Structures are given as C-alpha cells and as structure tokens.
Amino acid sequence: MARRSKTRKNGAGSCPIERVLIWTDMEGISCITRWEQVNSTGSAYAEGRALYTEDVNAAVRGAKLAGFEEIYVVDGHGAGGAYSFNSYLKDKLEPGAQYVFGHRWGCFVEPLRVGRCAVVLVGAHARAGVADGVLCHTMSSESWYHATLNGKPIGEVGFAAAIAGSFGAPVVFVSGDAATCREARELLGEHLVCAQVKRGVTRFAAVCLPPAESQQLIEDGVYAALIRSAELLPAPYDPRSPMTLRVELTSPDKVKDYMGRMGISVVGPREIESKGETFWELWDRFWHY
Ligand SMILES: [Zn+2]
Fold it and tell me: How confident is the model at residue 140, as a pLDDT?
C-alpha cells in the first residue's frame, strides 16, 4: 500500500521534509500512571488503550493539518501477548495515515531509509531512574537498570533520536510528562516542540491534563513542529562516532540473554556493551534480533 507524497505547501521557506514517521509509546500518555493501564492483562488496559489511541489520533491530525499525506504511525508499546505493538483501538483510528502493527519498538525505519522524513514521538517516557518520571524505564523495566551512549546517560527518547539521526532525520516533536520533555530538550535543543501532558509526582502519580486538552496540545504541537522552515527544525541527533552503548542490567543472570550475540561484549557481571560507526548499526545488533 503506497500513498503518493506531495511536497508540503505550508510554512515559510524551503522544508526538506516530505514524510512523517510517528513513533508512539503508552507510558507518556496523559492520565496514564500505572502499569495496569499499559499491560494487556492489566485491569485498566481498556482505559489505557482508549487514551493512547486518542493521543495518537491527535498527532495524526496535526501532521495532516501541516499538509502531509505520507504519515506512518508505529505502535511501539509492548503491552504483552497479542497486544504487543498492537494496542490502538482500530475502529477509532484517524484516517489519512498508515498504521504499523507488530514491529518492535524502534525497528520500523522504512520511511527513514527513503529520506526526507521527520520523526514525531507521542507518549514517550523518561529514562530509568528519574524521580519524577512517570512509569520511567529504559527498554525493559525488568532487566535494564541504566544505559549510556558514549558515557552519557540515555533513555528511549535518546535511542529514538539516535536511530532517526543515523538516517539524517530529526525528531521534531515529543509528547510526554515534564521529565520526558526536560530530557528531550536537553538532548535535542530549543527547536524541539514538546507537549507536556502530565507532571510526575512520583513514578506512579502525576498531575494530568484532561485528555481533550492533551490532545489539543499534541495536535497543535505536531502542526507547529512540522510547518517550520528548514533552519528552525532541530538538527538530526548525531552522537560522535564511533559509538559505544553500554547497558547495566538489573542482575547478573540477565547477561545470559546477550551472551554469544555478534557485536555484543559482556564487560562486567551485569554490564554489556556494543560499538558501531552509526547508532543504527549498533542498535540493529542489540535490539533487532
Ligand atoms: Zn511502552
């Protein structure tokens, strides 16, 4: 299924962006504060996926308003079982985009390979160990304790930006809690548009916007991020090469999942490491298996 892309008409000056890739996660959605809302077997999952779907729809509306016809939306949330990377309520999805199900987080890069692509992150969450990060974790709350890229702490926003950056694409918008917006701005700079939909009080408590307001914030923010001229787009994230990703796992037994894997070294009782010239090269070995 292919949609013809057209050059965007909105915005001043020349814009190098012709397509939009929306990567979504569930923990950074407004009014979501508990694992029970994001795990498929959780007692409040039905509520969580309804909230998730509407925040995602708002981002699609923003991209459509900005004039884009080639919009890819990827469900990146591992809810568990049949609902992993498959949590949206299908009959409620906003028309005018193509939806990707069943692909692991950060692995669907087709539009990035084509080029002239901007990345939008909806429902992102802070990295593991952040005091006010609602449901904060890095890749796995059970087995990853801490990760660094070239010695600098990194979470999923950083991973997404580094994957996009490997293909020369910028992350232009992030929605999530205050901690996520802070983390993203520190990494990606002042031109990043952020929609703060909640403020964490603890890892499992937050001051939240009502969904209607968070959705408006997301729609307006995505629109504003995508109508910018080239010089006002955030630069693609480019950690210096060669890159070293080091992950401290939660306990030594978790190391066995990575033993014998090409390009991954065990460097401590619960530490593993991978090196690459581009982040995608490194990530592809690390996560996409
Ligand atoms: Zn998630």
Answer: 81
Neighbours of ion ligand 1 (CB under 5 A): 25-27, 77
The CATH class that applies to domain 19-139+153-237 reads alpha beta
Ligand 1: centre distance to CA 155 (Å): 12
Determine the distance separating the centroid of ligand 1 and the alpha carbon of 152, expressed in angstroms: 22
Give pLDDT, residue 142.
Answer: 79
User: pLDDT above 90 covers what percent of the chain?
Assistant: 69
Residue 78 CA to ligand 1 centre (angstroms): 6
**Cα 34 to middle of ligand 1, angstroms:** 12
DSSP for the chain, please give it.
Answer: ----------SSS-----EEEEEE-STTSTT--SHHHHSTTSTTHHHHHHHHHHHHHHHHHHHHHTT-S-EEEEE--B-SGGGBT--S-GGGPPSSSEEE-SPPTT---HHHHH-SEEEEEEEE-PPTT-TT-TT--SS-TTTEEEEEETTEE--HHHHHHHHHHHTTPPEEEEEEEHHHHHHHHHHH-TT-EEEEEEEEEETTEEEE--HHHHHHHHHHHHHHHHS--GGGSPPPP-PPSSEEEEEEESSGGGGGGTTT-TTEEEEETTEEEEEESSHHHHHHHHT--
Q: How confident is the model at residue 85 (pLDDT cuts 50, 70, 90)?
A: very high
